[in-house]
Amino acid sequence: MAQASSAADVAAARGREAYQRMAWRDACEHLTAADRQDTLAAEDLDKLARAAYLIGRVDASGETWERAHHAFLDRGATAAAVRCAFWLAMTLVQRGEQARGGGWLARAQHILDDAALDCVEQGYLRIPMALRTLEGGDPETAYRSFVAITELADRFGDADLRALGRLGQGRSLVTQGQVAEGLARLDEAMVAVTTGEVSPVAAGIVYCTMVIVCRAIFDVQRMQEWTVVLSRWCARQQDLKPYRGQCLVHRSEIMQLRGEWPAAMEEVRQAREHLSDPPGDPVLGMALYQQGELLRLRGEFARAETCYRDASGCGHPTQPGMALLRLAQGRLDDAAAAIQRTLAEADGPVDRSRVLSAYVEIMLAAGERDDARSALDELDQIAAAFDTLYLRAMVEYARGCLLLADGDAGAAHAALRRASAAWYELKASYESARVRLQMVRVCRELGDHDTAEMELAAARQAFEQLGSAPGLEQVRELAERTVSAVPGGLTRREVEVLRLLATGATNREIAEDLVISEKTVARHVSNMFTKLGLSSRAAATAYAYEHDLV
Q: Are residues 506 and 419 both part of a single domain?
């Protein structure tokens, strides 16, 4: 008996040591071994529950926190028992088990009320009510509640509660429209995480909430910056898996934007695995949609469609991904019908902005420039209101595409340059490559074939690195297209102007027919005369007939 006790003591000591150096798997294994030989003390059970949670053993962590709770109660350590009940409840709620989680929170509150303790756990148990107030549409009251929670954390010197309180303040302020001040509170909470003041269990909650808030306001730069920082922080800890469900999906979106597609696919795979157990979590649809997006961009259209349909089965919208899939498949009518219906049903600037960019792309492909122009105007207004680099990049890219379709290659070039600079700053590889493809078309319109060739080569390299089959197909089509289809090196738009000029049309009539400005027509005529060495409209008309352009 003494020998078994000694072996348990050794294993427990090793577990505590591993826990201190954040070797979570080792801690879990040693403490589990000790527990098999001789029941662990309440403090060690709490450590085992935390270590199990941090390496993704959620069921085991819940069971162990419940044991720790009872062990602390048996010892009369009421506050510690309530703390275990709080973390158990939070993990249950994260898994979608609202009833069980709410039951444990109610139990913890009754225990604390009966004990009439003035302790920091009072602040922890106020968090769920403050969150319900915020989600119920009263951010001002929620903000005051989170301020009170933070003050309680300061009084007791509790770093975890302080970070969670500031996190709640930040969410409440952003919801009220005080975005800059709210983001400052989120940043403050994140700093506490990366400096090691906050426990890893609370750190995952802080980071994931920050990502969700920033995604809602399109602050992609902040999401990217903190993701990089926290990834380094995680790398220093053994087998750490602090992210759950929706957070994993949003991390996948960030990795996709940065061109880290294999990592993005792995992240969403983990999200699907986590959200499938227990079944029925509605966030699973979000993970399936994100997987569909990655597959669509890679050109795996059949698998992408399966993911979109499975996402729909979970109650998640399939647009604009499905419409863009139809566009990539050449089913333009289906794409246009789907995106038009989706935009008509979208409500609020956030939801509409996620559709408008795709709407512009599909309407331009369908030749509906006026519809594309109206959508671009709305997207521009939303971007001005949010004032984020991500939305500005979307707007400038859409503007460049529309200007190119209008025949104003010079203005299109300027807009695409602005889009390129913004996507480069965001380290958005795929979006940057798409800008380059449009630059190829613009530079060819402007007669700058050297730059067009360099842009095409850069786009090809980017799509190859990403593994984007549809992108490479567009590169191939552009490479095969004849740069100068007529004598004299005229661009496509200049040929259109020449054909109309040869019929006797005036500059105004040409402008009306091509839906461009008279000034643009005059520039095309001037460029055309220079390239062909002509000095009159009569000579240009003769040239057009001689070369079968009419």
A: no
Cβ atoms within 10 A of the Cβ of 106, count?
14
pLDDT digits (tens, 9 = 90+) for 278-293: 677 778 999 999 999 9
Query: Which phi and psi (to 5°) does residue 379 adopt?
Result: -65, -40
**Of 78-87, 111-120, 237-246, 426-435, minimum mean pLDDT range:** 237-246
d(CA 446, CA 455): 14
Q: What angle do CA 201, 130, 196 make, to 5 degrees?
A: 25
CATH of the domain at 440: 1.25.40.10
* Other C-beta atoms lying within 10 Å of the C-beta of residue 14: 17
Give residue for tokens 């969403």.
268
- Give the DSSP letter string of 494-509: HHHHHHHHHTT--HHH
Domain that holds residue 327: 319-378
Of all helices (H) and strands (E), which one includes residue 207?
helix 200-216
DSSP of 283-344 = THHHHHHHHHHHHHHHT-HHHHHHHHHHHHHTT---TTHHHHHHHHTT-HHHHHHHHHHHHH
Both tokens assigned to 396: 């400038």
Residue after which a domain boundary falls, among 458, 483, 508: 483
Are 417 and 459 in a shared domain? yes
Strand partners, 238: 23
Is the N-terminal amide bond of 320 cis, ω within 30° of 0?
Answer: yes
* Number of folded domains that form the chain: 3
Q: What is the pLDDT of residues 149-193, one digit of tens each?
A: 999 999 999 999 999 999 999 999 999 989 999 999 999 999 999
Distance (Å) of CA 364 to CA 188, 358, 360, 374, 433: 44, 10, 6, 12, 19
